[in-house]
Amino acid sequence: MKNISDYWDRNVSNWKVARHLDVGSQAFFEEVERYRFDKLEYLEPVVGYDRHAGKKVLDVGCGLGTDTARFASHGAEVTGIDIAPEAIALAEKNFAWRDLPGQFHVMDGEAMSFPDDSFDFVYCHTVLHFTPSPENMVREIHRVLKPGGRALLMMINRRSWLYFMHRVAGVKIDYMDAPVFHKKDPDEFSELTGPFPDKEIKLYRFPKRTEVHKGWKAAVYNTLFVDLFHALPARMTRNTGYHMLAFVQKPGTVE
Predict the structure, then answer these.
(1) Are the C-beta atoms of 254 and 198 separated by less than 8 Å?
(2) pLDDT tens digits, one per residue of 192-212
(3) C-alpha closest to that of 43 among 242, 183, 204
(4) Burial class (CB in 10 A: 0-12, 13-18, 19+), 180
(5) Three-state secondary structure string covering 56-85
(6) Among 57, 118, 186, 234, which has the highest number of CB atoms less than 10 A from its own CB?
(7) Any residues with CB less than 8 A from the CB of 155 and at least 6 apart, and which?
């Protein structure tokens, strides 16, 4: 796992929109947060960060702690883990300037040290496709959830419009050069989340105009990739979201 940890140590702060800012500064964290929630506009209403007040929430693969902070700011008791020490150091800085409480640990999500039945809610977004064995991570998430506890799991859809454009037109996808990059279709993702019989899988993240590219690259991307997509009938595109989200619940009685 050291090659994976080393990769994310080098790349966890590599946000193109914030390259002009000092890594670890308040301005850096604010710009990353703005860009993430503008780009992934579905997150706020779908995740419902404000619906977990008073709950014990675990963020698996917390990165900079951007999403973790949303839970904490709404009163959740948060714990964040990441395999990359640099990610944990930056997440702690992020929480420090926000004056938010939270616990952070360098930890492998495939082999967590938490006791069984520890958390009310587990959040695992933009992580499963980067770990060697997503199946092991899902089993660990199931183990640390309390009976009746819920989790939100995310995986890349290999039948997505973005992945199709990557294959036919060379559209760059962030972090595809990572040591591990899994892609699943919805049926395979349903099988992967097998430990959770109670589940619902939905597709999100459809093409949006770029902030990162400029000039002719932006024009080509926005015209051929974004505008063409939105010109197509919805019945042709509704199953091509890049992000697959599984809303799952562990069997048992909620405390």
Answers:
(1) no
(2) 999 999 999 999 987 666 655
(3) 204
(4) middle
(5) EEEEECCCCCHHHHHHHHCCCEEEEEECCH
(6) 57
(7) 128, 129, 134, 182, 184, 189, 192, 243, 244, 246
Pairwise CA distance, residues 120 & 160, whole Å: 31
Please report the DSSP string for 2-60 in residue order: HHHHHHHHHHTT--GGGTTS-TTSHHHHHHHHHHHHHHTTTHHHHH-GGG-TTSEEEEE
- pTM (2 d.p.): 0.91
Token pair belonging to 11: 């790349």
Per CATH, domain 2-160+174-206+240-249 is 3.40.50.150: yes
- Residue whose pair of structure tokens reads 């959040």 in the numeric block: 123
How do residues 222-245 score in pLDDT, each as one tens digit? Answer: 666 777 776 777 776 678 889 999
Instruction: Please choose, from the candidates 155, 162, 101, 146, the residue with its C-alpha nearest in 3D space to the C-alpha of residue 128.
Output: 155
Which tokens in the block code for residue 89? 């150091």
